[in-house]
Amino acid sequence: MTEVRLHIISLKKILLLLAVSGLFIYWQDPDPGLLKQYRAKDQLTDWLYAYIQYDAATPAAKAALLKQATANAWRTPRTTDEIQAWMDLLINQGYSLLQSGDIISSTDAYQQAFEWGKQHADITDPGLALEYILKPLGNNYTRLGDYEQALFIHRIALEFARELNDRQAMAATYSNLANTAANMGQLEQSLRYCREGAILADKRSATYGLLLSEQADAEQQLQQFSAARQSISQSIRILQQQPAGNPEAAHWLFMAYQQAGDIYLDDPKTAKHYYQQALAMPEGKRSLRRREQARLFLRMGKLQMALKQPEQALLWLDSCAGILVPGKDIRLLTARDIYGEYILLDLLFTTATVYQSLRQPATALNLYQLSFIAERELRHQYVSPSAKEAAISDSRDRYETAIGLAWQSWQDTHDPKYQQTILSFMENSKSQLLWEEMQQSAVSRGNDTLHKRLRLLEQAQLYYRKEALQNNFGDSLLQLREQRVAWDLATLRKKMRVGVSTDTGSFSPELLLGKLMPGQRIRAYFAGQQTLYTIEADQQGIRFADRSPLDKEAIRYFKQHFFEDGPAAMINQPKAYYEAAYRLYAQLFKPQPLQPGYTYLLMPDGILSTLPVEALITAPIYTTSIGQWPFLVKQATVSYAYSLRTWALQQQAPTNAKGFSGFFISQQQPGLADLQGVAKEKKLLMPVVANGHWYENGQASSKAFRQALEESAIVHISTHAFTTKDSIAAPHIMLSDAPFYLFELTGLSQHPAMVVLSACKTGDGRLVTGEGIQSMAHAFMAAGTPAVVAASWNVNDATAPLLMQQFYQQLSTADNAATALQQAKLNWLKDPQVTDMHKLPYYWAALNFLGNTQAAVLPASRFSWYWLLLLPAPLFFFGRKWIR
């Protein structure tokens, strides 16, 4: 009897393999009467296999039927056969969804199969799980750009293969690992995976040919062109020798021909030869993958463009479009036709460049816009931050091309719509991830079951991250648990579809400009490779557009030399600073100066995000009296935003309505320098702020800080802070008992109206292409705080308390926080008691205002007159400077 049972299980596995391989095509539709009979007799195994064996007209129909089976099952599986049948159902569902193009749902189905296998590990066939669950699941994550998850799955697959002692399976898994590492930009690691797999693979096998192809890809990206050509030639030779009945090997050969064409693109004749070899392969010899057929047509189109044959290019591109958007004229596509697919993105952009070369700018610009919609739709399928950042970075050159065409069209026609197009492209190119994070923060406040589950998983992730940090990442089990929670979070967020709409009607620059206040203007920038584009607008619309050369190295040197390296260069060579600051002003602002009496909302981009704009000099004539220097801060009020859309969200962000909480930690934990100016800062602020809650040293605990963030309208922080630039594992604010990690902000249910980060480099951090500076200010804004004051470099312990005192005093009488901060700086520069040296920008320009200028208003203190008594005697600063 046992032998019969094993035979039945084996037979069912064979049927499964046939179904998954696409060869299982002769089964009849499920007989409703038979299904009813199986159910009446409680024969769940037979009932499930009736669904699995059903031959639907399309993969999508098959997937829908299998999903229906999981929903209609009258009970959960109990016996070994039932458990196996349920797994087979999930695997076939994942395969059918993949074939239909629904990769996200396919991933969910394979993930369910994986979880089911884990729950029933004692009866799950490791070989079956390896080949038909882990392999497609990992590859799906790679397709979705969730590379960390893909690596996680592939590594599990490698362990399965090792346990089975299956050298060929190990080699194949190394190929998957190599592909994923290459997609993550880890090219050296990809090469190592290829070489480890090559050691295990049979040198005559198709897997060995695939590994050589992966190796050629990494070598090409590392610009090892000779090695890449040698590897791809050897790969093709091995794959050509595979048996004719191996469709997978034929498909790999089809891809290798295309890869060879890419490697030889500098030799168009040879490249065309390889592409044509791919074209010549009969579809019957390889598994039919229309997506890769489309990619080949796209490659041929690009090759024709490189040969300056745009009309021929369009023929190939139309053939590609015929596969990706069948029945549609690519020139007449709308946003509703677009979906997340990199080949579609590339097709739209390439076709746009062709029409640009044919001097049809309207068609080209529309196709550029559609390509960006495809890029956003594709990115929304990603979960890992690194994959999203890579997608944003990858789009920058495309945006510059599109903006350049819109600019030239504006110059040629003077049609205002092209200015609006420039602004639209600028907006779409910047801070997209911050916008998504801000939306997620708003959406996660829901109280339904899914949102509660989301918050529970987020709290679990915070717990495991903190535990891992406190154990110095020494506990592998904690890391594994954190990975598992991240995986569950990724799946839930996909189901909730939290993200940005790709409907172009959802973003109107004109509508957002209408939200500006009278007297408020924006300046938006796009920093290209060597060109800077600028748009200024107000409530009435766009005022001007400008294009100018961009000297990135001059900006980088200016910030590093005069600010990040400390005040010495500015103190020792004030004239050199003056001249450098004026040169940058002349380049960036002289053609269109900021107008007095206006509040300017600057939306910098790229290297401009690091520039201390208020510290620039607006006139060329040098004087030794530093207080008299024509700083830009004297010209107009300046605040910052990451983009128009993030700024608009900040105008409507729900926040705590009232209350002030200040955290002042001068006595630091062992290993950290005490902060001498912090106690003075608290002493100066107390008479200015009415009804504040004050936490000093031991009182400034992590618990009190979290409570303040959820209850107070304004939270002031004066302590040590550490960013990614400090080479630490996780950015954090140091409190009296423990660090507060920035990722903990996601666990808050309420947020302050304004956070004041009176600590070093809280406005500085990692500069991410297309996103701006990933600073502490960025983290607070992403979590839901609409306004932040932060420092771009080390704040001075002697000057910061006085500037903060002035800021809060001004805030108690002003309705604009940016104006309050500007006036505090102007008062500093006018104060005769401040030494001339300390009027250098290093001492006052570090603090900047970001976000909603009217988010928080400080009520005037009943004792607001008392602050006058605390003004210090004339200030004398000596050689020692306390920095925090």
UniProtKB/TrEMBL annotation:
Residues 580-851 form the CHAT domain. It comes from Chitinophaga arvensicola. This is Tetratricopeptide repeat-containing protein. InterPro entries: CHAT_dom (IPR024983), TPR-like_helical_dom_sf (IPR011990), TPR_rpt (IPR019734). It comes from the Bacteria.
